[in-house]
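Protein of interest.
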Amino acid sequence: MSKSIYVLMVLILVIMISSCKQNTKQNDGLAENPLLQEWDTPYGVPPFDKIKDEDYEPAFEAAMKEQNENIAKIIDNQDAPTFENTIVALDFSGMLLARVGGVFFNMLSSNTSDSLQAIAQRISPELSKHGDEIAMNAKLFEKIKAVYLQKDQLGLNEEQSMLLELTYKSFISGGANLNDADKKRMMEINQRLSTLSLQFGDNLLAEINNYKLIIDNKEDLAGLPESQIEAAAITAKENGMEGKWVFTLQNSSVLPFLQYADNRELRKEIQTAYVNKGNNNNEYDNKAIILEITKLNIEKAHLLGYENYASMVLEDNMAGKPENVYKLLDQLWQPALKMANKEADEYRKLMKKDGVDGKLEAWDWRYYTEKVRKEKYDLDEEMLKPYFKLENVRDGVFEVANKLYGLTFTPDKNIPLYHPDAEAYVVTDENGNHVAVLYMDYFPRASKRGGAWMDNFSGQYVYNGKNVAPVITINCNFTKPTGTQPVLLTFDEAETLFHEFGHSLHGMLSQCTYPSTSGTNVPRDFVELPSQIMENWASEPEVMKMYARHYQTNEPITDELIAKLEASGTFNQGFATVEYLAASYLDMYWHTMNEMTETDVLTAEEKAMNKIGLIPEIVSRYRSTYFSHIFGGGYSSGYYSYIWSEVLDADAFGAFKENGLFDKETADSFKKNILSNGHKTDPMTMFVNFRGREPKIDALLKKRGLN
């Protein structure tokens, strides 16, 4: 995660640049670059109104130069290597680079452009090379190793010991022990992977933006809620097609269409487009990229002495090795598949009752799910949405955080925004002390990648005895308000907001000393615990009465609707679990290859799904060509993390159920042992310190109705 920079380092950098023997014009350009200046903004947030695209590359170059000079000081230090002059100095050596990257890569995700994408393609290989040159620096590693070998005699505290361990291991996995030829090859691989990963994401965004289902016959809208019809009309107008209706591949558009549209052929059309993103044999096709990424991953793993890429990645996760991931997935797969088959049988009967010829298809599943939900529980999403006005859900999340952790969220109009859709909040604790700045950005746009995520512009750490507060951002892709309605979320979307907010709490409440151990810098299969446990509060009746209020009457959600929602809690969990697990198996399939034997992505994917017996009526939540988590993000060999963390969160939430949803002692313990603890210690130790024992899978099986 990105880290911020303190004022002194910026002043030093400006002095350094001013004294460099370069031409005056270049000096002036760097001196005026807002990314390299002290940020005279509220709470030190980025000055978005001053940063221009042309500022990024010079800022990256200056920041890499500064870090190289800091590294040289560590190496040239004639004193014996110590924890402070080597490990701590290294951890703080690239703070300016982290600050520049924190702004740039968040903009690349949230408000991108052709210009930013081009810069990313140019700068990413340079950043990869820069990181590799540090990780493979023999003299630097010699000093790190000298400190590591005397770790038991240094009297380090828990966090210091963890930082030393993480630093040493990162150099080993970064290639520090390789010979010169292998180091050179490792650098080539990493640079190429950085470019391919970016291209994968750019292609996916282009595919999403390029597709439109255009409807000009109102009869084809039959079954769709009025709010979705109105949203489609607005999208059409924005695209110069007033009088028509346009549906896109954004989840907030395509999923409701699949749930409600009576026109089966149109459901088939948009479903087919959705599952073929990146697989259209055009300039945005991702298949060749996947094969090259996989080949390079295998080669990288072999260079470092691992059997496959997953073994390399998982070594530092809670799972430890691929066998443990498969053990968890296999425990859930058969009961989930059994439940999904029962659901499919139910939908086939309903299709026959409706007089629909042919077999149940993937584009029928969500449609008949809604029909059965209505028939069985007298419940559908349109009955619930009036109670989930976006602003009410947001305020509900804030109130939960206040009751649990004493946090207050105050909007601040003086904080610069990177886009008009974003909001900014100042976060304070129960004593009025500043905790963080929180950006929230809710709506889809062509310049924003899909999905929902939390990140930070700068993380929390302590420097010279002073705590540096984080700047956090949450991004979602909810449908914008229409002319007649505010933003009304589905219950799933409300849970998504709670989920991402849980991540933000992990970042905001961090109380660590070092950048590398703070906030969400924890193993992938632990990082989802704070986010997923927050989802539990979203559905608790006591909490729903707080925030789920009808957007017109302000009346709280009725007991009757809450009862229906609870009764349907495990409904469709066969489908939900199977489509998720299928993607987890697919991820592991690509990353447990010992040799590159695959030459066709679709054939490989088919083999992976046939191996687990995925039924044809369900498509993996992510197919390979749009699986950005593993080919365009940081979750390669890690998509299982959500279900791994769900075991943790289901068990951990049991403590709140036992002691009270807002029990102060329980909340304080969770904050102390999990949320504020970053990666000070081993994740299992953190969990045991909170729960009093290791996690059990029972609570998860019950929650999903799989027991």
In short: Residues 322-353 form the longest helix (32 residues). Residues 560 and 624 are 42 Å apart (CA to CA). The chain is about 55% helix and 5% strand.
